[in-house]
Design goal:
Layout (H helix, E strand, L loop, with lengths): L4 E14 L2 E14 L3 E5 L6 H8 L9 E8 L2 E2 L5 H7 L4 E4 L3 H4 L6 H12 L4 H14 L5 H4 L9 H12 L6 E5 L7 H18 L2 E6 L2 H7 L2 E6 L2 E7 H6 L4 H8 L48 E4 L2 E3 L39
Parallel strand pairs: 3-8, 3-9, 6-7, 7-8
Antiparallel strand pairs: 1-2, 1-4, 4-5, 9-10, 10-12, 11-12
The chain binds adenosine-5'-triphosphate and nickel (II) ion.
Length: 354
């Protein structure tokens, strides 16, 4: 597979001014997507996944966030370019699909009209050509009887079909990058599997890079090439999907996987505790207050530098040194690096014996 860098995000920081002061939703995050690959951003609700991906094309809704950093798409910085230039890229070369097709569609217009409208925003095509293309796209995303359904209204489509229509709308500009934010979360499991399969086929056909946001690691296992694990606005860990599932390094990633019964996880009801207040995040590692391995060194300074623990797998955790076994914190002979002991109990969750 060719592996040219399509999207390169560096030191992305997005803040919101709120009544309670500045809220930092995304705090100095880096990630990249290559042509033809699927990168999944995972993490609990409130981690900053949506804000991070919506910062890429500056579509953050009101109040507008303050976005800083660099977002290079094919070498051009999207954050530095004028809105008029970005508008040509957004919805065309870079397309978004969202969780809820219900909200993204206009109920007063036929589905066909909405697809042709999306087409004609970016392409100078006649009405007949646009219709033919729209029908073709509806067909490609698996809507049976596409030409007959062209004049149907959104309410005449099921949830899964609506999401297919949204995908058709996203494909109008033959995008090179598709950003999908929880596109299957609102669907039942069978339909979800169909939509994931469709995205997979289309990715192959269009040779798109896909940036996929989800909190569902089961979905990630199905589709990801690489994973970026976010927590409270920071990246905790990243790496190839097999590495992350086989030997997750960060205690947060390990705990997320522990919540997956299909992968042998035994935690029921999610990781204990809650995310820190984004107005006032803790010092050190953001996850330390909920981490069973946290010690003094975890609660001081900045989020730790990322350390490579296997090729392409990097973890932001004080317990790691380059070349260390990615599962070191889980070993029975785990030795804390700092002075005050791993199981000091202070603000942490006590370590379960395994
Ligand atoms: N427009 C906004 N104004 C103020 N705060 C916001 C805004 N949008 C998001 N936030 C805050 O930013 C943080 C990150 O939110 P975000 O929606 O990116 O999380 P997420 O990881 O996508 O969660 P979920 O899985 O629930 O979609 C949250 O604390 C959220 O409340
Ligand atoms: Ni979100």
């Amino acid at each position: 597979m060719p592996s040219d860098q399509l999207l390169e995000v560096e030191d992305l920081t997005t803040t919101f001014g709120t009544d309670d002061g500045t809220l930092t939703a995304v705090d100095g995050v880096d990630f990249d997507v290559d042509t033809g690959e699927t990168v999944c951003i995972v993490g609990e609700s409130g981690s900053g996944k949506t804000v991070a991906t919506e910062s890429i094309t500056r579509i953050i809704k009101t109040p507008p966030g303050e976005i800083e950093g660099t977002v290079r798409y094919k070498g051009r910085d999207l954050l530095a370019m004028p809105e008029s230039e970005l508008r040509d890229i957004r919805g065309n070369e870079i397309a978004h699909i969202f969780q809820n097709p219900q909200e993204a569609m206009n109920h007063c217009y036929t589905v066909g009209w909405q697809i042709t409208e999306a087409l004609q925003i970016h392409q100078d095509v006649s009405d007949e050509e646009a219709r033919a293309k729209a029908v073709d796209l509806m067909d490609r995303v698996g809507i049976a009887n596409a030409s007959a359904r062209f004049d149907d209204y959104p309410h005449e489509f099921s949830g899964g079909q609506k999401q297919r229509v949204m995908i058709a709308m996203a494909l109008v500009g033959d995008p090179d990058l598709l950003i999908a934010d929880e596109p299957t979360t609102a669907l039942d499991v069978t339909v979800q599997a169909q939509i994931l399969r469709l995205l997979d086929e289309l990715q192959e056909e269009f040779d798109m890079g896909v940036l996929f946001v989800t909190h569902d690691l089961g979905v990630v296992a199905e589709i990801a090439d690489r994973i970026v694990v976010m927590y409270a606005g920071k990246v905790m860990e990243r790496g190839g999907v097999l590495d992350i599932f086989d030997h997750p390094a960060h205690p947060y990633t390990q705990q997320l996987l522990e919540c997956l019964p299909e992968f042998g996880g035994t935690t029921v009801g999610g990781i204990p505790g809650t995310l820190p207040d984004p107005h006032d995040p803790p010092d050190g590692c953001r996850f330390a207050p909920r981490c069973e391995y946290a010690e003094g060194a975890c609660r001081a300074g900045e989020q730790p530098e990322e350390i490579e623990v296997s090729p392409g797998q990097r973890v932001s955790c004080v317990h790691y040194r380059p070349g260390m076994d990615p599962s070191v914190v889980r070993n029975d002979n785990f030795e804390p690096v700092g002075g005050d002991g791993a199981a000091d109990g202070e603000g942490g969750v006590s370590r379960a014996d395994d």
